[in-house]
Amino acid sequence: MKLRPYQQEVAKAILESIQEKKGLTFSVEIARQGGKNELSAQLEVLLLTMFMAKGGSAVKCSPTFKPQTVISIMRLKERLDDFGFAGIWSTEMGYIVKLGAARQVFLSAEESSSVVGHTADILLEIDESQDVAKEKYTKEFRPMGSAFNVTTVHYGTTWDDNTLLEEIKQTNLELERKDGIKRHFRYDWQEVAKHNPEYCAFVEAERDRLGESHPLFRTQYALLPIRGGGGFLSSQQIAQMLGEHARAHRRHQASKVYAAGIDLAGESEVVEEQILARPGRDATVITIAEVISPAGDSITKDPHINIVEHYVWVGRRHSDLCPQLVDILKNVWGCSRIVVDATAVGESVTSFLRQALGSKVIPFKFTQSSKSEAGFDLLAAINSGRLKLYKQDGSQDYRELMFELEKAKSVYRPNQTLNFFVDPSDGHDDYLTSLALVVQAAAKYVPRKAKGQ
């Protein structure tokens, strides 16, 4: 078995528990792409070999059948071939791999999956344990090994302090303090990098791109859990966004590239009779940014984003506003990319803008997943120093933007997604949302390359 020293340490502990029938439960945190799945696959090959005459079943579950369980099945088959078992192993029902009398069963831990009835008497593996529901594990998977006091392994990376993996980890650390038996294994990116220089270079680039405090870097590579929710941005992050460039009101040079992010007020929030005061109203906000391609020696390929202008309307119907939006985006700024909130009523506005301005208008529909991605991208742009605001100009726009940045909150969900918002009791998040959308617009911009001799 070709395993790195830290993988060998885990494998030896698991094998000892199986052979001596200790029935221990282990938690294994390995930085993303650090070899967790390879460790699991090679361990499965070894156990199938050890039990091919005696027989028995090992069970492995993953948060989803496709793609996670399918990938695990394919990896095991490939490793069996690598170890010379090609033509000897077989499959049953598409999710069981057999070698002699030994069986490796692969199951999905999705809420709707039906798994009751399976038994594990060799090993029970929980892959990406941080994404498996506690109730599903406790009621349906944990009992699979009860008759044989089976050894159990939880693999994954950290997320917040409420996941199944974190719960198992804390229990293991407490047990270690009592009896000295090592049950929790943690190898962050620096440990993995000791054995893989290419991996080290990749993760260092990710750290520069995302920032060391980015939730994904902290959890996936540094293996540091997120402590619940709280403020979306720290005072240091807000300070890092403060730029030195002046606010602009129109495009100054034809060679410059501009992008726009548009957060649309809902039609239900708009009235014809009067323009209502800002405190109680949703607003349509456009954020304009200059997009600057990184220098050739830059540590990141992502562009720099200088916010240069804001537009805001309260109490304007979309139908009345659309011609003005087209004029601003086309004639005043000549925007190369425009990302528009196309959720619900925003779909009709987006359609109008696409007809008027073409494919440079990109619809963005807010879902749990897409908003999470936008939040992570916004944090990456801030942490890497690529996103800068125009310098303080005493305007209401600037004050409202800073207010929303300071009041913004975050919630980290168990499925490793993020929500960011301003609590309605505190105010609005129109400028914040528009800012996140302009980051999306800048990220999608690909500068044209000159052709010719």
Task: Summarize the entry for a quick read.
This protein has 453 residues and is α/β, with parallel strands linked by helices. It has helices at residues 5-19, 36-50, 65-82, 134-141, 164-179, 189-193, 197-210, 215-220, 235-241, 318-332, 346-357, 368-383, 396-407, 430-443, and strands at 25-30, 56-62, 90-92, 96-99, 102-108, 123-126, 151-156, 184-187, 230-231, 258-263, 284-292, 304-313, 337-341, 361-364, 387-388, 409-412, 418-421. The strands form 3 sheets. It has an 8-stranded mixed beta sheet. It has a 6-stranded mixed beta sheet with strand order 14-13-10-11-12-15.
Written overview of the protein:
The protein has 453 residues and is of the alpha/beta class. It has two domains: 5-206, P-loop containing nucleotide triphosphate hydrolases (Rossmann fold), CATH 3.40.50; 230-443, Nucleotidyltransferase, domain 5, CATH 3.30.420.240. The protein contains 14 helices and 17 strands. The protein has helices spanning 5-19, 36-50, 65-82, 134-141, 164-179, 189-193, 197-210, 215-220, 235-241, 318-332, 346-357, 368-383, 396-407, 430-443; strands at 25-30, 56-62, 90-92, 96-99, 102-108, 123-126, 151-156, 184-187, 230-231, 258-263, 284-292, 304-313, 337-341, 361-364, 387-388, 409-412, 418-421. The strands form three sheets. The chain has an eight-stranded mixed sheet with strand order 3-4-5-2-6-7-1-8. A six-stranded mixed sheet has the order 14-13-10-11-12-15. A three-stranded antiparallel sheet has the order 9-16-17. Helix 4 (134-141) links the parallel strand 6 (123-126) and strand 7. Helix 2 (36-50) crosses helix 3 (65-82), helix 10 (318-332) packs parallel to helix 11 (346-357) and helix 12 packs across helix 14 (430-443). The longest helix is centred in the N-terminal third of the chain and has 18 residues, at 65-82. The N and C termini lie far apart (54 Å).
